[in-house]
Amino acid sequence: MMQYNRGNLLIIGGAEDKEKECKILKFFYKEAGGKDSRICIITAASERAAEAAEPYQELFKKFGCADVTALNFYTREDANSPENLTKIKRSSGIFFTGGDQLRITAMLGGTEIGKALHMLYENNVIIAGTSAGASVMSDTMIIGGEGDTPGEDLIRMGPGLGLLRGVIIDQHFAQRGRIGRLLTAVALNPHVLGIGIDEDTSIHVRADGKVRVVGRGTALILDAANAVLSNVDELYDGRPLAFAPVRLHVLCEGFEFNIWERTSSRQ
Question: At 36, which CATH number?
Answer without folding.
Answer: 3.40.50.880
